[in-house]
Amino acid sequence: MVLKTNNWKTIVAAAFVAVSLTACGTASNTGGSDAAKYPEKPIVITAPSGAGGGWDKTARSLSKVLGETKLVDQTMTVENKPGGGGTVFLAEYVAKDKDDPYKLFVSSPPILINNLKKEGNSPYGYKDVTPLAQITKDYGAIAVAADSKYNDIQALIDDIKADASKVTLAGGSAPGSMDHLISVLPAFKLGVDPKTVKYLSYDGGGEAIAALLGKNADAIGTDISSLGSYLKAGKIKILAVTSNERLGGDFKDVPTLKELGIDAEFTIWRGVLGPKGMTADQIAYWDKTLKALSENEAWNTELKANDWASEYKNSTDFAAFLAEQEVVVQELLTALGMQK
């Protein structure tokens, strides 16, 4: 009798374990299946600026090549959300899209600068989103109209020193943001109080260049990659670039600040970021996809067409890099008296 009871208990226990394992297996497979489905609907990539600037071009190039190469099967669209050098978009994004892995965006140093600066700052920064990958690097440049009286940056700075109110600099981002820092950096390094430099901000590099060509600004500070077509068309002169050595191609004749005796450089990284609530599987998908993009010939062709340099970092390395860059930006803003 005891033996029979034990056999019955054994059979029931075995059956229970079998059912439990089946349930676990089903749950696991379901989770794996859900992960495998991502992405299963259209993806939106936002450029937090107007058309024509570096963010806009990066978002459109990224969407174009990912689609053409079939690295992403879903439809990808680009939307522009200008305002406050990216601060307006980021506030809305963090509030409304923190759990939507189908809404990504591109960014660059302003996501750090806007969070650290004193005036017009953003309460949000890279820690409020998910860094997915750095994909390019670029440099700042100071440019003037082709018919400008300025043929070298020293002459421009001499006029600023003489009377800063009579020289207008412009950029495609808010005061204290990236284009502003690029604009005032050479003068600051030569002893000018950056707070005295007259700076006009526009929503995007395209608008800033329009202001320059329309005689509403004497010079602009912006990313050099956005200036290539205007240089080729003979509409502008580029007085200096913030790289540590001369660039090639169309920019081979543009001197660096350092060779002009100004000890300064400024690298503009660009990357892809997503909402804070992304899962490990979703992040892994973009690690794999964006690494494949960085190695694709079509992407390299796109980089050359836009005068960009390739610089790939995966999500982990990109986040660590941003932590390092945050320290650098804080030091620069402190030196300029613009830190919060």
UniProtKB/TrEMBL annotation:
Family note: Belongs to the UPF0065 (bug) family.
PANTHER family: TRICARBOXYLATE-BINDING PROTEIN, UPF0065 PROTEIN YFLP
CDD domains (UniProt xref): PBP2_Bug_TTT
Keyword Signal: yes
Signal peptide: 1-25
Record protein name field: Putative tricarboxylic transport membrane protein
Record carries keyword Signal: yes
InterPro entries referenced in this protein's UniProt entry, alphabetically: BUG, Bug_dom1
